[in-house]
Amino acid sequence: MQAARIQWREGGTPESDAFGDVYFSRDGGLAESEYVFFKHNGLPARFAQAQDAFFIAETGFGTGLNALLTFEHWQRTAPPHAVLHFISFEKFPLRRADLIRAHAAWPELAVMAQQLQAGYPPLTPGWHHVPIADNILLWLWFGDVHEGLADLEVPGGVDAWYLDGFAPSKNPDMWTAPLYEQMARLSHAETTFATFTAAGVVRRGLEAAGFAVDKVPGFGRKREMICGHFAAGAPRQRLQKPEQVQVVGAGLAGAAAARVLADAGMAVTVYEAESPGAGASGNWAGVLHPLVTADWSLRSQWYQLALEQALPRWRDAIAAGVAGRLSGLDQLLVTPAWQVRFEKFAHRFPDHDLFHVVEKPCKTAFNAVHYPQGGWLSPPKLVQHLLDHPRIEMKRQKADVHSRGLDKAMTIWATGVGESPLRSAIRPVKGQVSRLSGSMPALHEPLVHQGYSVPTTMGLITGATFEKTALDQTIPTREGHAHNRQLLAQACPELELGDTLEGRVSLRPTTRDHMPIIGVDAARQQAFSLGHGARGLISVWYAAHQLATQLGACRRPCFIRIEHQSRISRV
Ligand SMILES: Cc1cc2nc3c(=O)[nH]c(=O)nc-3n(C[C@H](O)[C@H](O)[C@H](O)COP(=O)(O)OP(=O)(O)OC[C@H]3O[C@@H](n4cnc5c(N)ncnc54)[C@H](O)[C@@H]3O)c2cc1C
Ligand SMILES: C[S@@+](CC[C@H](N)C(=O)[O-])C[C@H]1O[C@@H](n2cnc3c(N)ncnc32)[C@H](O)[C@@H]1O
């Protein structure tokens, strides 16, 4: 993964070193973008009539100028209930500093530019999510566009294509048949495209893939450009939204699923055997931060994409009064293996922006990595907050796999270690946390070591044990407390620990491969959000959105190889 190397021309125009071409022209770049991509996809009229979701896909994100311009228009002209999904592909992403410098040329787009800069993802390969506004979601693929397109599904299809990317003469590898074939696979009968070039090789490629191509006058001094629509397309599929659904289990997984479906307009009944947050999600404080691995496998990419989707939702929850803070977290490098892992990662992705190394952050002998976006949250408060919705009805009732006591609607199983048709794939792992007295001024941010410690208004929550156990062993033990105190004492030997006040035990619903189990079995009217293991705070939103998309409650892009990692058919 290589960041773009930019030469700044006079007047602040960025030029790509690798391609020897400018990203946009300073004179009239904005007007050109508007003329070529916006106008020639017919978007002024189409935005005003947008239904539930509108999908634009772009080759070559670059500085994001086309995206920002499109966001501005969408905010002004689209109906408020409709959501814009802007999907863009970039092989050489700009570093954040270059992005900010490029945006300085467009003060008229400053509001949207700030949103993009704030959510601009780490420069790691794979899919990323950038929330721009409630009704504007940006999906970025960092890698070659051909690979990214092959990995993409769009329910209902892409509505408009922006074919950017440097000129075919300077970038022949991009403008090849597989690009047009993937476009055809992802298009419907009303799909349009527009591009600044009129090169014969592009026109012929698009025509061969089934697009009707028109030559029209180009922008400014450019003689011609091309645009058109997908003549070979099938009609766009409409959403077939189920009206109601039932969720079994009111932990983080069930509450997030219920919330997404209720927000999409469905009536949701949640069945809970005990009380909301009675299981693992009753844990007083949990932490979340990026999961850095040296190989940055598809699983790492899954969790990164999940985290990027979870963070904005959790920030909203904190703003609504849920206990927690997402303003930074340190992970102590307590073992040589951890140190090596972070070094390898940083060597491989030098522009990653995920963490930086800090020296001995509290009373400790260890250095740490600091995650600026990490933090902690109170899971039981989150559960309460998510379930508080006029379309969610709670029923205190135990459900069984024969659906006795349940209505006939689609059932989502989010039962943690409890009963479900896929229970045999779940391995309960007991976890005990301890609550210590005192505020410990040396610990002002959550700390991850061999366990984790979170300063809260209730005192210090510290833990946790990991024990394979029988399901009924949920009483805190003295050994558990001693273990938790020892983890923290080893990490920060000079820290004076308060008294142990109490403990809480619950069971993590883990799986053999440490990935959650997510998906819909339409034939049996069942869906699953299970196996969130020790990372539910990261994974439950992505799970909820995958289910909502598969159930037809909303339309979001799907990422084939990533979502394959959490498919239900593997268990
Ligand atoms: C000690 C500890 C520390 C943790 N720390 C972190 C952390 O720092 N960060 C992080 O991201 N994650 C952490 N986790 C993991 C996280 O808590 C879980 O991933 C998450 O809570 C799982 O949520 P869930 O909804 O899948 O399961 P649960 O919260 O267990 O919810 C399942 C619910 O289903 C109900 N139920 C079960 N069977 C039935 C039935 N038949 N009918 C009706 N209801 C039923 C249960 O009563 C329960 O309320 C921790 C877990 C533990 C135990
Ligand atoms: C002209 S710039 C795009 C300008 C951009 N749309 C904007 O609004 O700023 C072209 C971009 O395409 C990217 N690109 C070129 N070939 C690519 C490929 N094969 N896959 C993904 N991105 C590619 C380049 O790195 C560059 O950022």
UniProtKB/TrEMBL annotation:
Tell me the keywords, alphabetical order. Cytoplasm, FAD, Flavoprotein, Methyltransferase, Multifunctional enzyme, Oxidoreductase, S-adenosyl-L-methionine, Transferase, tRNA processing
Where does the UniProt entry say this protein principally localizes? cytoplasm
Entry's Gene Ontology cellular component terms: cytoplasm
Q: Which GO terms describe its molecular function?
A: flavin adenine dinucleotide binding; oxidoreductase activity, acting on the CH-NH group of donors; tRNA (5-methylaminomethyl-2-thiouridylate)(34)-methyltransferase activity
- List the residue ranges of the region (tRNA (mnm(5)s(2)U34)-methyltransferase): 1-231
Indicate whether Oxidoreductase appears among the record's keywords: yes
> Which residue stretches belong to region FAD-dependent cmnm(5)s(2)U34 oxidoreductase?
248-571
Location in the cell reads: Cytoplasm
Reaction(s) the record says it catalyses: 5-aminomethyl-2-thiouridine(34) in tRNA + S-adenosyl-L-methionine = 5-methylaminomethyl-2-thiouridine(34) in tRNA + S-adenosyl-L-homocysteine + H(+)
Q: FAD dependent oxidoreductase domain location, by residue?
A: 245-548
Please, which domain of life does this record's source organism belong to?
Answer: Bacteria
Spell out the family assignment given in the record's similarity comment. Answer: In the C-terminal section; belongs to the DAO family. In the N-terminal section; belongs to the methyltransferase superfamily. tRNA (mnm(5)s(2)U34)-methyltransferase family.
What this protein is called in its record is: tRNA 5-methylaminomethyl-2-thiouridine biosynthesis bifunctional protein MnmC
Q: What is the lineage of its organism?
A: Bacteria, Pseudomonadati, Pseudomonadota, Gammaproteobacteria, Thiotrichales
